[in-house]
Amino acid sequence: MLLHRLLATLLAAIALAGPALAQDQPLRVILGFPAGAGADTITRLVADKMRGTLGRPVVVENRAGAGGILANEVVKGSKPDGNTVLMTPFATMVAYPHSYSKLSYDPFTDFLPVAHVASFQLALGVGAKVPATTVAEYVALAKTGGQYTNYASASAGSLPHFFGVMFARAAGLELTHVPYRGSAPVLQALVGGEIPAAMLVLADIGALAQAGQARVLAVSGAKRAPGAPDIPTFKEAGYDIEGTAWYAMFAPAGTPKEIVDRIAKAAVDATLAADTKPRIEAMNLEPTGLGPADLARILKADYDRWGPVIRASGFKAD
Predict the structure, then answer these.
(1) What are phi and psi of 97, to 5 degrees?
(2) What is the C-alpha to C-alpha distance for residues 134 and 130, in angstroms, rounded to an integer?
(3) 254 CB contacts (<8 Å, ≥6 apart)?
(4) Using one digit for the tens of pLDDT, what is the confidence trace for 65-101?
């Protein structure tokens, strides 16, 4: 009987120590994009702030490859012990499952939502020499045909690509998508007149517009972007479409709830901290700081919203 009591006590102690043991090791935040990118900047801002709350090292590991898929695979295959989480943009969890016929992970069964960190808007921009200052004027130009039916994005299969499809359907246009390899070449093409219009992340085209080298006609959110209050939404411009992207944190499936909640609180507090929030806003991102339940709801809603749009585009990534 005494042996049984000792064994039960030992097992209980091990169970309680499990979550605590994770605190003895660094928390690895895996990011599928290279150092220096916008995703890297916000990840490091949040990770730096999380260290104090968690009382443990928080290390960002850049595992760039396959548009972020490699990082998702790394986290999926990690032990669910609270030592590894994923920071990822919207695309790997929402767009890729619809555009890849064979994907090595499932966003709902292989991961647990941790924290919705920030959202960002997309924007329709035109070159400075394009004779359109409103969406309606651009639509009128596009209906004349020729070069004005072309629009660019940073890559095929990206959210801006699909939002362009959504916009074309809403405006009754036949637009031709011209994919580039990254935002920088698109911006250069706009400045040089190589392409008349582009759908981009607002943060990417905002600086160009401020320099007078491009013009932003509309943003994709339900409300105007805080960093660009003079630019109307597509809905305000008369087109009933909206869509924002985001950065969020996920843990491997099977991670204990108490650990997920602890990391989530640290991430939320870090995002909304008085010395972090303004720095995120300066990147034309909107700090959200939402926990696991809200992220789960947003993930499901966006997955359902974008599926029909991506299928209508006919795009397949593989």
Answers:
(1) -60, -20
(2) 11
(3) 80, 112
(4) 888 999 999 999 999 999 999 999 999 999 999 999 8
Alpha-carbon distance 69 to 24, whole Å?
A: 28
Task: Look up tokens 């985001």; give the residue.
Answer: 246
**Does residue 89 contact residue 31 with C-beta atoms inside 8 Å?**
no
Q: Is 275 exposed, middle or buried (0-12, 13-18, 19+ CB in 10 A)?
A: exposed
Show the CA angle centred on residue 18, arms to residues 16 and 24, nearest 5°. 120
Task: Report the sign of the C-alpha dihedral through residues 187, 190, 191, 192, in that order.
Answer: positive
- Asked if 103 and 129 sit in the same domain, the reply is no
- DSSP 8-state secondary structure symbol assigned to residue 212: T
Low-confidence ranges of the chain (pLDDT < 70): 1-23
Q: Both 107 and 185 in a single domain?
A: no
> Alpha helices of the chain — where are they, by DSSP H?
2-21, 38-54, 69-76, 90-94, 96-99, 135-142, 159-171, 183-192, 202-210, 257-272, 277-281, 292-313
- 127 and 114 share a domain? no
DSSP reduced 3-state for 263: helix
